[in-house]
Model the fold of this input.
Amino acid sequence: MTEPRIAVLLPCYNEEAAIAQTVAGFRAALPGATIYVYDNNSRDRTIELARAAGAVVRSERMQGKGNVVRRMFADVDADIYVMADGDTTYDAEAAPQLVKKLLDEQLDMVVGSRVTQEDAAYRRGHVMGNKLLTGMLAQLFGRSFTDILSGYRVFSRRFVKSFPVLSGGFEIETEISVHALELRMPVGEVETRYFSRPEGSTSKLSTYSDGFRILNTIMTLYRIERPLLFFGAIGAVLALAAVALGIPLAITYYHTHLVPRFPTAILATGLVILAALNGFAGLILDTVVRGRREVRRLAYLGHPAPGA
Done:
């Protein structure tokens, strides 16, 4: 059995203070891997330093981490993909452990769940937001990870080549998690150390704007992947509102055989029609989603399991 081809993928934007150290760390941890640095319009010396450190440097002009991940997954050919950030916050020494778990258990994704004792590494707002979003994902999709926003992940080839990346920004980690949960892929987690950024390196994250975008992504994916429940819930609310408005009218009509409030009656009728439309929309879209899911599953099954 030949050794699997391992690719280390590092999306970067203005990381001159950390990229050389990051490349060196993964080079030492995975000597046989090819390290790719995908630059995303950096205005500093990221490209120069990454190339000097021995990485294969490529560029993606569309701004945003999701756009970079889409390009990386499309262009790079390997058996195992290790994705991290180029800011030295993720523990490169843990990479062999993550790869081993993926191969030994024939998983499609292993998440490096972040553990840190440094307050500067993981802001409280991000910790709270991560827990909230992780809980929401578990409620919406039945199971989840302990750290859905971790950017440290190891993928099988069949995961990467069956994943249609749609996100443009930092919500990409959420989309990756949902893809794995939706197709019921075998996945795992390993606790890994998480460090603060080196001096001179600046975080590109925004607690509130990125959190809102991730929350919007979860709701959008839920609407797309669970249309029957999504539109069914809207239809149920509209139907209950129609019943609440219609009961007094029905009682009045029973006693007087008159309908004195025509605007309310028209409103209740309109709500019933909207409720029915939402229900039928959910049923139709659920059939469409099932077909899409089958196509993605077949694309997924077109590649062998890791380590097979």
About this structure: DSSP finds ten helices and seven strands in the chain.
